[in-house]
Structure of 8-oxoguanine deaminase:
Amino acid sequence: MTPPVDLLIRNSLLLCAFDDTGTELPGGWLAVDDGVIVAVGDKDTAPPEAETVVDAAGCLVLPGLVNAHQHLYQNLTRCYAAAAHVDNLTDWFWAYFTAWGRLDAEAVAISTTVGLAELALSGCTTSADHLYLHPEPELIDAQIQAARDIGVRFHPVRGSMTLGEADGAICPPNLVERVDDVLDDSRRLVEAYHDPTPSSMVRVGIGPSTLMSSSDAAMIESTAFADAFDVRLHSHVADDPDEEAYVGARFGRRPLQVYEDFGWLGRRSWLAHVVYPNHDEINALAAAGVSVAHCPSMTMIDGGLPGGPPPIRAMLDAGVNVGIGCDGATAADHQSLWLETKTAMLLSRQREGRASAMSARDALRMATRGGAHAVGRDGEIGQLSVGTNADVSVWRMDTLPYAGVLDDPVTGLMHCGPASAWHTIVGGKFVVRDGEPVTVDVPEALRRHRAAASRVQGLTCQ
Ligand SMILES: [Zn+2]
């Protein structure tokens, strides 16, 4: 007799796999053993016996969402009064630097716990994070421990700022690092934590923050480091008119041209934002296999950008891989990847002037397969297929927001809402169950977060 598998999710309203053939199974089920999906079937096929059975009646079953760009520490300064109504990127950075210069290990750890818990409630099972301020050593170590405790797959990027105000860049002296120190710390992190295996919970990347605060050496040596250690490269590019003006004055080139000059246009790279690429640049990204992390709220929250929303439809049509990121909690304030996926769908429809420009499935494919590809894990996560990690999000559709959604729960999930995941499962383990986080003591986490946020913002603890 065949022994039971670890977990069976059965009897769903619909299982939408986001695999290569777009499998959608009414009454679909999936079986999990040792953290991996071992079988998938529909209402007409018999599932195996299992130790734990989850009845998904009335639920849509999707892959876990993958957050392709994030700065978790920023939830310590959400809606920070000094920056809430600043209209340009340069002033925005300067408004935050005093507070961010007070980051310590406890603040970074609890911001990671709170941020990943909020993301898990939105169906997210893997998140990148880009930490480019290091007023104290070993802040990413604290993040990795927090991510392990909560059980969300974590892709920290060892970010940096290597040019300061004295060089005409946007970074105060206390946050400028030497390139050699950045590389030494990156090597330490990769050797201590980077796990390249398919079931990995932690993979480390390297990523100078932006051309506005990075030296030529940091840009060039990061690519050599990524090649030497076989890790991914990440940065911000083409996200604001201030950046374009700064880069034009410093290099006489457009931002993406400079990334190309520095050897960044390759399959290792995934770049956040890319709001205003021209036709040639889109084709260059596609030809090089560069992924884009689209963060739609960021492009709107400060009033919108002069060129309008980014041309995501054109990028997809040209063959550019696009994932979705929430960005930091000062660029989007919320950390719901469901909401950011919905926002991405709406923003592209507005840009193109037609609903067909971005379907619910298009948006969810970016949030699953697109994100998985961006962080270098297509084939491991982001789809519900035999042999992939059992990272699953389960959404109840028998609730008030979805009353009347009869034909198509996938479109319903994106058009209606607000939505919160009913279950979020990573490698077969529950991170959210019955709508509640199970690996975080939420009241205690909020108490620690309030203390840390007060300290970072320079306020008396409230
Ligand atoms: Zn960012």
In short: Residues 65-374 form a domain with the TIM Barrel fold (CATH 3.20.20.140). The chain has two domains: 5-64+381-437, 65-374.
